[in-house]
Design a protein that fits this description.
By secondary structure, the chain is mostly beta strands. About 5% of the residues lie in helices and about 45% in strands.
Amino acid sequence: MRDFIALAVLLGLSLTALAQDPPRVQVDQSKIDGVKAGTITEAHATWWGYDKEDATKAIQAAIDSGVKKVVIDNVGSDWVVAPIQLRSNLEIVLNDGVVLRRKPGAFVYQDSRGRLRGRILFQMTDLQNVTFRGIGSAKIVGEELPYGIAIQASTHTFNIEGSYQNDPAKKTNSKNISIVNLTVCPSGGDVVRICGCEQILLDRLQAIRGYRQGISITGDCIDLKAVNCKFNDTAGSAPMAGIDIEPNYDSARLENLVFEDCEFVNNELSGVCVSNNSNMAASITFQNCLIEANANGGIMMGHTSRDETDRPGKVEFIKCRIVGHKVPAVTLAYHPSTKTRVVLRDCLIDNSVGSHNAVTLSSDTPKDLYGIEIVGLTVVENDIARDPVVFNSRYGNSLVNPIVKDVAVKTATGETRPFDAAKFIRDSAPNPEAKAFKLKLMDKRTFTAVAKKGQWAGAGIRFRNTTDYYVNARVGDRIPIKFTNRIVHAFDDKPLEIIVSTPTVPNVQRLKLPFKQSLEYTLEAKEDGNYKFEIQARGQTVTVECAAPGQALSSSEKLYVFGCSGRLYFAVPPGTKKVVVEAGGSLREESDCALLDPSGTIVAEAKRLAGSKLLSAERVDAAKPEVWSVEFNASKLFLRLGDPIPFLFSTSPTNVMRERAF
């Protein structure tokens, strides 16, 4: 610094002069006239002047002039801009050292109803042949908006889209769009959002501190190549991934998406998120990429395709490094397509700080999983002995003809331990008993109490989503029931709804269960039979307390028990030779569950359930009715009872319901 000051003195410059802002640049009318005459095809934005407070007009005028190339020069101060409108057949060049800075307050507006809305810096709709190029250290700097998450999440830096994306007959795509050698940090919303594009090049783009995503792909994307890019440090508004490939309509095409030598580091969700809502098969490749230290996992594949397709697809990771994740480095949660391959080839996963298995495969659908290929995988582990790859079956699904080979674990001591891929494949194969599992068809008119006297119970058992609660009553009975809203999410403060049906009339009453409160309700029976309470807990949980001798909980699919420990009881009808309970857990929020016989002895159990497991036992005397139970420590636990046992759980053995003949 002293040398710089000395040089300034030698040149006759005062320190005051050095600290001054650059003067306003005057309009160069002769150059503008040359542009209008067509003799100049490369224009500099400074020809239209430069205003330190707001340089939008100069840049917009240069773009609107129609030249093929617009250069933004380094004038020694930031170019402060409001939203810029681009056009087709245009190259914009930011010279070395240029900082394009969003103008505070220019990216929020009020709509006709007085609501705040966000604006995008560079909007590209149905454009062709657009290049945005940085030279040297050129960058775009956003602002920290004080207007709330919803506003800031929509103020993307680049929004590249087509038209009519939900209508295949009308939709059009932007084509031949390039963003080259540019740093964006921070960015409101996404650094890049794509919804309807073809022939996209991202070269040396540093997408740092995106507020919602580094890059989002929400619709058609065909022939995209990203090379030497960084999608790092995303945080602010969900999802918060480095890249989120999540088309939001079923005809979206994801074809030939290639990411080479890219980084996905320190994002609040995951480095790579694939949630393909389209019915179309995808073709996505990540090669030689670094996926590191993301808060909720390295690679999250929510769903690879929504439905079956005749066109083969792939989601593949080739020679990638996935390191430094405390949760599973790679997860697959939904994979119903038989034609889409999910590939890990020659990858390295450093799982030494992880608390879970490195690769976890599952699919929350009864369909089997096809196309799994894990070849040449090395997993670096700490001192915990655990398999590098696990499969958590749900609904009895399985892996069909997976390719798993050359998988090894390197321990903290440098030892290499081979993975028994053959055993993994055997253990993940179709299970005939799980495939045969089914629920009993039930008629609530047949439910009746097992005992003559019940007991007050249910305070500690929390149920989530929609649960049907049945109470058996006779004319004149007055049965007190206590419903309590046990919160999970503080933001969901609206009352929960409970829909009451009599034995003969559906939906006769709607009860409101206030936020974080209890509702003490008295069932006054005016007819004999079973009264139904449809408890709609949404994302919260509800407990039900009652002393009726005939009361039980059911669900149309599976009983969802959340964040509690306890015991639930059920009636086993005579003639049942084998008791089968399906207990399902959730990845990262595992549960323990055990099956107990009438004496209270554990006859089957499962620890740390992340998928589903059948708990079963043969009965000693199948001729008599019995009351069995499940005991659990649940984070997220899903329970089903197999036919011929009625799918009815009760909070006490004296409160159990059974079926009777008419």
